[in-house]
């Protein structure tokens, strides 16, 4: 749902090509970016009544189906933003429609997107993580907790002081609200937690997975589109060799953030935030830290194999002989689903 902040035009677009919103109280300064597939464009503009800079997001829908779902997403984003009042969530200001095109006006934050190629020191990445976690704590402490559902580099702005801003609430949902089947895969592959991919209920731990994936992208200098290269067949991130200098405690914290089984992640943003605060990002860590990290790595790599062996033994040799290959395959599929905290029915959803 994000609007790329990389302008596809090499030159400056003549101002005569920008929409004219002067009668509505806005004057477009320039285009910030566009998402061609999503039919969305963002403009930087002046609010004429107060000489304040704002962002105007344009939503175009090309078919009856996208008209309905797109308008619903547009209305939902406005409804959620109206309820929020946080200094690092751009404030909703206005919305209007002209000639079948929808527009939403928000507060402008002078901060580039993490989707742009920028390098950060690991300690700076920790500061970004703390900043976003503070926003998630705010969202999760609402009377009806809000799940963003699309946290990734492109939807995070960071200023020179490393203050992070969370944008694009087009996929956000009230926790527990019913989600249409068609929206299960509306997020971004690689950043969506496994429970969302398989249509299971989302919790306060779901956004933590997406944030963890985003931080791993920053640490390894990996582009969002290449995040799949860091994920193995068991939905686990493998990034440690790319950043060997980080403290084992920080590594363990990150791994827990992106644990495929949501029950094994931090329960919510508040718990994750308090766990991160005292952790030193760089350095070899103490002997105990290194030992604990090594044990956890070994446990992760052997747990699936041991569980599979135990189940194969429990099934018995009679079943193995009568259905060669079939029972083994079913058990392996079931263990893969159980390993990420889902029931064995998920094997049907991933094409087995």
> How many domain modules?
3
SS-based structural class?
alpha+beta
Compute the separation of the termini in Å.
Answer: 30 Å
The number of E-state strands comes to 9
Q: Supply the number of helical segments.
A: 10
Q: Indicate the low-confidence ranges by residue numbers.
A: 1-14, 180-185, 287-324, 347-352
CATH architecture identity of the largest domain: Orthogonal Bundle
Radius of gyration, taken over Cα atoms and rounded to an integer in Å: 23 Å
Subunit organisation of the chains: single chain
Give the neighbour order of strands across the main sheet. 1-2-3-5-4
CATH topology of the largest domain: Transferase(Phosphotransferase), domain 1
- SS strand fraction: 5-15%
Task: Assign an overall shape.
Answer: globular
Enzyme class: transferase
Organism: Komarekiella delphini-convector SJRDD-AB1
Domain Protein kinase: 26-280
Protein name: non-specific serine/threonine protein kinase
Describe this protein's structure.
Helix 2 (122-140) runs antiparallel to helix 6 (269-276). This protein has helices at 64-83, 122-140, 194-197, 206-220, 248-257, 269-276, 287-315, 317-322, 326-339, 346-349; strands at residues 26-35, 40-47, 52-59, 92-98, 101-107, 146-147, 156-158, 164-166, 173-174. The chain has 10 helices and 9 strands. A 5-stranded antiparallel β-sheet has the order 1-2-3-5-4, with helices on one face. A two-stranded antiparallel ribbon has the order 6-9. A two-stranded antiparallel sheet has the order 7-8. It has 3 domains: 15-107, 2-Layer Sandwich (Phosphorylase Kinase, domain 1), CATH 3.30.200; 122-276, Transferase(Phosphotransferase) domain 1 (Transferase(Phosphotransferase), domain 1, Orthogonal Bundle), CATH 1.10.510; 304-349, no CATH class. The chain has 352 residues and is α+β, with helices and mostly antiparallel strands. The relative contact order is 0.09. It catalyses: L-seryl-[protein] + ATP = O-phospho-L-seryl-[protein] + ADP + H(+); L-threonyl-[protein] + ATP = O-phospho-L-threonyl-[protein] + ADP + H(+). This is non-specific serine/threonine protein kinase. Residues 26-280 form the Protein kinase domain.
